[in-house]
Structures
1.
Amino acid sequence: MNKRICILAGSPRKNGNSAMLCNEFARGAKDGGHSVETIFLRDKKIGYCLACYHCKKSEGVCAINDDMADILDKINAADVIVMASPVYFYSIDAQMKALIDRCVARWLTIKDKTFYYIMTAAEDSVTVMDCTLDCFRGLAKCLSGSIEGGVLYGKGVYEAGAIKKLPIMKKAYEMGRSVS
C-alpha cells in the first residue's frame, strides 16, 4: 500500500551526513511506490515554543506565525514520519528540538504514525546516540498510536559527505524501500 512519508531533516548542512541518509531513505521509499516529501528544517522558519498555550485556547493555532503550521499539516497528513538529526552534545540539534517542542500546538491530532529515526555522529561509541534516540522517542511516546519502524545509526562521520562511502547508505535505501 502506498504510504505518505514526511521526512523531517534536521541537519543544518545541505550536504551533511544525516541529510544524505534522508535522501537515500527517500530514494528507496519512492522506488517502493511511496510518496515522499522531505522538509529540510534549515530552510524553514521555526521559532521556539513560548509556552503561552495560545494553541490550547485556539484549537491548535499557534501564536507564532512561521512555517510550523504548514509543517504540522504535513505531519498530520503523513502515514510515516522520518526524523533525522546529527548528534549535538549527545542530543538532537536545535532545529529538530524547536520542531518537537512546537508540536505541542497539535500533539493530540498527530495519531497513528510510524516513526523512523536517522542519526549521525562524529563519535563511534556504542552509546553516543542513546540520548538522541530518547529525544525522538519521547515525542512519539506522547502521540497516540505511534509505532517505531526503524533506526539508522551513522557513526564515526564528521566531515560532510563522509557517510557516502559507508554501508549505512545502502541500509538507508533499503529501509526506505521496505516501508510497509
2.
Amino acid sequence: MRRPEPSPSHRQSTRFLALYALAVGGGSASYAPFLTLFLPARLLELFGDQAVQVMSYSAFAGAIAASVSNIFFGWASDRTGHRRGWIFGGMVLSCLLLVSMRGVETIFQLLAMVVAWQISLNMMLAPLAAWAGDCVPDEQKGLLGGLLSLAPGIGALVGAAITLPLIAAGEVRLVINAALVAAMVLPVLVLGRPRPMPHLQRSSGGGDKATVEGPAPDPSSVPVWQMWLARLLVQISEASLFAFLLMWLTRFDGTVRDNDVARVFAFVLFAAVPVAIVAGRWSDRARRPMAPLVVAVAIASMGLAGMSLAPNVLWGVAGYMTFGIAAAVFLALHSSQTLRVLPRPEHRGRDLGLFNLTNTIPSLVMPGIALALIPVFGFQALFAVLAGLTFLALPLLTTRKGTRSPA
C-alpha cells in the first residue's frame, strides 16, 4: 500500500530549498578552491619538496580547529535559538581571512592563519547545517540530499573559474573567491523565509510527531553510530584525494596544472548532481533511505582500487572519476539522512558538530597514513588502503533492523 503524499503545509517551500542549497554551495566555495588549489600551489612555491609535509601539518592544525569550533558554534546556535546571525558573522570573518592568505610566508604564519580561518569558517557552516534540520521534514530529506550534491560542484566550479589565466592572478583570485561566497550565502539569510516546522523541534521520543508530520520514522535507518562510522571511512578516502590529487597527478605528468585538476574536480562533482537528485527522490518515494548509500560506497571502493592500479594519467583520472562521483553522491545523501536519525532537535547543532568530526578526523588520520605510505610505497599503496577502508562501510550500512518502512 502506497503512503499518501504529505500535505503542502508539511513540506518545505521550493524557494527555501533552492536558496539553502545555494548557500551550502557558497560554504563549499569558501574552502574547496583554497584547500585543493591555492594552498597546495602556494606550498609548492614556498617549500618545494617539503610541500607534502607542510600540507600535512596544516591539515592537522586546521582539522583540530574545525572539529572544536564546529561543535562549539553548533551548540551556541542551539542555545541562542537562531542560526542566521551566526551564519552571517562566520561568513564575514572567513571571507576576510581568506583574502589575507596570500601574505603568508612562513610555516608559523600559515598554521596561525589556517586555524583562525577554520574557526571563522565553522562559525558559518555549523549553524547552516543545523538550519536544514529545523526546516526540512523527513519526506524531503532525499530531495535535500540531492540538492546538497550541488555544493561540492559549485565549490569546484568556482575554483576552476578563478584559476583561469584570463580571470585574475595572485591575491585578486582570493578576493573574487570571497565575493562569490558572500553572493551565494546572503540570499538565503535575506530571502529564504522558511515555512515553520514546529514538529521538527520535538524529540523523537516524545509527543505526537507521527500525527503532526505524517509518517513514523523509517525503521530501516541504521543506528547513529553506524551512520557516523560509515561516513568516517568514506571521508578518510575523500580527504586524502582532496589534499594530494594534484601532487599525485604531477608525478605522472609534470605538465599537469592546478587548473587541469580544478576542471577534473568540477566535472566529477557536477556529474554526481543528477545521480544524487534522482537517487534522493527515489529514496523518498520508495522509503529506502539507505539503498543509494550502499550502492555508492561499493562503487567508490572500486574506483579507489582502480586508482591503485593506474599505469598513467588517463587511467588515474578515470579511477578518480569513478570514486569521485560515487563519493559525492554518498556524502550528499548521507548528510541529509543524518538529520533523520538524530534524536534530540534541541541539541541538533551540537550533535551535527559531533557528526562533523567525520569530516575533520580524516584530516588528522590522513597525514599519518600518507606520510607512512607515500615516501616508502608510493601513492598506489595509499589508494589500495583507502579502497579497503571504504569497502568496510558496506556492512555498517546494511546491518539494521528491517529493510523498509511500513506501507
